[in-house]
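not sure who needs this but someone in the group chat was asking about DNA polymerase domain-containing protein from Paenibacillus sambharensis so here u go. i didnt clean anything up, its just raw.
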Amino acid sequence: MPVKTKGTVNIGGYDISITNPEKLLWPEAGITKLVYLEKLAMLAPYLLKHCQDRYLTTIRYPNGIHGKSFYQKNCPEPVPSYVRIAEQGGIHYVHLDSLPTLIWLGNLACLEFHASFDRIEQPERPTEWILDIDPSLDEEPRIMKAAWLAGELLRSLGLQSVPKTSGATGVQIMVPVEPDLTFDELRLFGQFIGEYLARAHPDLFTVERLKKNRGTLIYLDYLQHYQGKTLSAPYTPRARQAASVSTPLYWDEVREGVHPADFNLHTIGERLSRHGDLLERVPAQNIRALLDFITRKG
């Protein structure tokens, strides 16, 4: 039987208990809880930036990625004094806005961080539009080709975008937008993009929601981008054997066919030190005129 150990670290003036630091969370990658917490501290400036104004859902793996897991929306109890709460619809979400809060969640074996599309402030006006490219196959060698084709369509419409690995099998394309459109308006834009790609490449794409009806086609999920829904946050780790991390990419990397598992807890630090957050390089864009044109044509 493993020996239970416990220690305390002081972060930002707060004492945080660390339990079982030698427990393997990602056995294949050799990542213990202590190593994980060190990696979270390194990721904090990036992960917090993309979660701090969102309602947070975590996935907890108390015994590592091969053990039982569960989603957690309500803040775990007891709630430390440094943890802020964001209430919505009777759920008391963790407001992930500080390093002590992140390390506390990490110690609870929260291995994945999923942020809501609606923001705590101005929830009805999104600041991004996202297309979730979701393969039907567990191993999909065409996923980067699919992302590239979607990006090419957006470029033809004059839009700048950033592709991002989900950290699992999919890719998301993110378009920062000025907060002047509603989720319903952006859904019309997503419907146009999804249906256009599915018509142009019927052997690759589908907008069919039911997985059993997709066959081997790659699903263009424009419906996921909506209030009350979540997505793997940029720079969240994922409970995969490679300890992969949801990572923004260069379009050249997509064209070259990089593999999502290449971006993981062992490699993400060097990448961030060299390239920073690629999501910061694309400005918010106003797409109202484009949406008006699309809806008139439709």
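also The chain has two domains: 6-119, 128-297. if thats useful
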